[in-house]
Amino acid sequence: MPASPDSTPRPSLSVFDATTIMVGLVVGIGIFRTPSLVAANVGSELAFVAVWVAGGVITLIGALCYAELSAAHPNAGGEYHFLSRAYGKPVAMLFGWARGSVIQTGAIAGVAFVLGDYLAQLLPLGPYGPALYAAIAIIVFTGVNVIGTLESKTLQIAMTATEILAILAIIAFGLLGSAEAPPPAPALAPETASLGMAMIFVLLTYGGWNETAYLTGELKDPARNIAKVLVLGTLVLVTLYVLANLALLSILGLEGLRGSDAVAADMMGVVAGPAGSIVVSLAIVVAAVSTLNATIFTGARVYYAMARDMTLLPRVGKWDERGRTPANGLIAQAVVALALVAVGAATRDGFKAMVDYTAPVFWGFLLLVGLAVFVLRWREPGRALPFRTPLYPLTPILFCLTCLYMLHASIAYTGVAGLFGLGVLAAGVPLLLFRRREPRTETEGGPLPAAVGLSD
């Protein structure tokens, strides 16, 4: 039966489903790449562990802010909906453009490049092998998500479970390994150590938790359950990351971490030999697959919300009732991501190019979402808040200050790629000319789908 143009997302995800997707979004390639970069910017083993704990605390604070917004304003548009209610449709539409052309598609291309790099080691396809693998992966997992939410959800649960088991094995080998204690690392010169830079890499590794906001349109009883998902997911992430880094530190030591480009493989090579390194390489492939699938799953949800506020390309936001997915949005997202893969293939490091491209735009809009906690409380004093951010206003202030610092750092350190991302953001301004002018009766951000069973 053809999908109705008015088909809308249905609440089909449990707390377990959504928490699994959140963990799968975050636990991925970062934990296998950034510990050496963090170690190079801290002066002691204690500081190394402390920044990972601090990053977890900041992530939890951000999750609590998002929990308030998501519980009070549940919608499949996630951050797009929050920005629309707080600042109006023009800001939300610009965010939708940024997400579709920079933030989400850049993240998809970046993760696909990591997957391609490791697959190319196992089965080389020539100088452009990583890019070819990246493109094939985007096409395959977009197809899985177009088929339906149930199919992509099942795949995500299986991939995340495999991924976590692999990381737990690394933790066990590291903490229980029989290797001799590594020598203490020499102190870094004051001009070399930089806790600020270390936090940039730590928060990059924790990144992705905010994608959970896009699941509220499909989460059962989101007003009550979204806070559970965000808090449970964050606690799982902090536990995994801190233990994993303790394991790496216990085997390689801080100096060993500083000199390693593949920390997990090197650690497993010490305690388990070459076979251990192969296992870790396979685990990284699984991690990249899990992250890629989850990022594609949540990414296209913003097209559904954005298309309801625009007269241009309305079919991009069409919800496919048969598969319970924004099928056209998924296809549009894949086309942009494939174009970015083509651009990244022309650079020396496709993954780094995508990180640099997305960072300034991402942190700028995350700052606006954090400020929306204050704006919406002020603009809608009578609105019931099923979940309130603890220690308000201190916690959202700390979150906003963190976003502001990360915005500054990302502009200062990403160079031309970051400026190019900002240029692409500016290129979306003409889209505001296609804003729908007719009055909307439900919400400023567009009517909430009746099938969700919530009023806003």
Please name the defining characteristics of this protein.
transmembrane; mainly alpha; disordered C terminus
Q: Give the CA-based shape.
A: globular
Poorly predicted regions: 1-6, 189-193, 439-456
The helix tally amounts to 17
Beta content: under 5%
Share of helix, binned: 55-70%
Radius of gyration: 21 Å
The first-to-last residue Cα distance is 30 Å
Summarize model confidence as the mean pLDDT: 78
Largest sheet: none
Secondary-structure element string = HHHHHHHHHHHHHHHHH
**Would you count the extended β strands for me?**
0
Structural class: mainly alpha
Explain how this protein is built:
- It is a multi-pass membrane protein.
- Its main location: membrane.
- It comes from Methylopila henanensis.
- By secondary structure, the chain is mainly alpha-helical.
- Helix content is 69%, strand content 0%.
- The protein contains 17 helices and no strands.
- Helix 16 crosses helix 17.
- The longest helix has 37 residues.
Structure described in brief:
It is a multi-pass membrane protein. With 456 residues, this protein is an all-alpha fold.
Describe the protein's topology:
Elements: H1 15-26, H2 30-33, H3 35-39, H4 45-72, H5 79-87, H6 89-122, H7 129-147, H8 149-176, H9 195-206, H10 222-258, H11 263-272, H12 274-299, H13 301-307, H14 327-345, H15 350-379, H16 394-414, H17 416-427
